[in-house]
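JOB MANIFEST
job_type = single_chain_structure
chain_count = 1
residues = 637
[input]
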Amino acid sequence: MCGIAGVIDVEGRRPDDERLVDGMLRALAHRGPDDQHALADGHSVIGARRLSIIDVEGGRQPLTDEHGRFVITNNGEIYNYLELAAPLRAAGHRFASHGDTETAVHLYEERGDRFVEALRGMYALAVWDRTSRRLTLVRDRLGKKPLYWRLDGSRLAYASELKALLQDPETPRTVDRVALAQYLEYGYVPAPRTIIEGVHKLPPGSMLTFEGGEPRVERYWSPPVSLAEERPFEQDLERCLDILRESVRLRLRSDVPVGLFLSGGMDSSTVLALVSELGHDRVKTFSIGFRHARFDELPYARLVAERFGTEHHEAVVDLDAIELLPSLSFAFDEPFADASAIPTFRVAQLAATDVKVVLTGDGGDESFGGYDRYLKHAATRVPSGPVGMVLTAGAHLARRTLRATAPGATVTRRTSTWLRLAEMSDDDRYISLMEQSTRAQRAALLGSDPLANEDGYLRSALEAGPTRLPARLMRADMLTYLPEDLLVKMDRATMANSIEARSPLLDQELVEFMASRPADRRIRGRQTKVLLRAAARELLPPEVLERPKMGFGVPIDDWFRGGLGAVFEELVLAPDSHIRDHLDVDTVRAMHTTHVAGTEDLGANLWALLMFESWARRWLGAPVDATAAPVPVFAGS
């Protein structure tokens, strides 16, 4: 595990490129605090920071093949490296280390760009061919590891995080307006854009080749669309369990201790059960809770920890999370509006005192169909024909009656919401369920109605999927929400604290298997995660299996009616705020006033604005020293 960075110039590298890459790598020190190293030639400087996990003594990067032609760096882990190394050794390849990355460079010697087809893991790889002067950048199938790049004439620079590219004084700091509109809509900036004009993210499952001064990006993997042959449920269950066990076993490969993030929900609890089944005793588990009972999962996490005899650690997140704002704007060096980054960051801080590697339950909802929005989407899908017409007419009548008799009641709002969703197409309904702000809100903030409608990103993901529901929605989540929100959150929070997160429920074999199964293996009626529940039934206490789904929420609405509201005023509504340069401040102020008054719950919207302002104060303007510790950005910290 590490952070990678480099510069390639087809016209020959500049005298200061080694110094530049050194600064880029120092900006990634948190991703790899154990070592920094770079190799240079007449056209390249290739570097890496290292968090030593496998082959602690001998796995230094960058490394080369036995002939010195290919230089490779890798941010991530290739879990099946032992299985891949054996035939490579038999074919005559000489290994200088016992790590996973060297396997990839020998595989590249053998197969060229097709080497990626054999890799099972999480990775952002850079391979430089010194002979042909060809750079290959590869990002793992699901996007667990990030990779940014920028082309400037004959030069291509790349890095694990945006902050490293911002060490180059020639990198512009101009906000991309389309990216800003996407951020307001989704809560993140989706690949291939970034918040900065001219800087790109390599999409998940994609490969960039740079040769002769022209970059070319191609996707090498997408989640499967077609169903495989149907089999009895028992056979699917057996196969699912086999893949789960192998996935967990592979992710326990480490030369340093491995812990586990434990929420007390089905996903992370199942991972822990499988770890225990493999004979690992006294696993260190880490959990986060809240003083708000509606968000607190600590009692369930303790129950599971006691069941499997773990060495359990926990902490409580309170409004003191305000102190994390500078750290969050440093770690998430693009604006990022998922407030659950707060507890994720806190649990990473907690674990970093004891371990370098943690397993997580990430991906259970995507792989097995666990989101309540799939059920909500189905519940608001009106059948065609007379039945649908009667339902819609009845809803309209109910709404008119309720507006006259109980205009502010919850039932009135819910009826209006149901009717609004029911009258949409399937794809529009999904987009509405996923958006973080309304089109009207975005238009007011941006001062542009066309710019406010950037849902082509989600629509294209839906249109590339199957026609059947809910598989269409699950695949869209796998292509969008998972890599751009959930995996970004986990990667930045853990790597900011110099620990590695591994996700057994996102193993590519498991993802492909579940995508090939009939929809009722995931959702049946009102029951979600059908196959995972069956797999977990013999492993977990019934209290865990049967409890309502909570998600990883944050009491953000309450916080903005308390101390966080004061921070918002001090930062976002300040006379010198960056928000004023990009959004309509009167709309921002009106949203804050409405929320504080309790007229609407706009905490998620305010958090997005606060995170943009916090990010802008850290990263816009003149180049900053990314190696410096985050500093308070408001008086109350």
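[summary]
Confidence is low (pLDDT under 50) at residues 631-637.
The chain has 27 helices and 17 strands.
exit_status = 0
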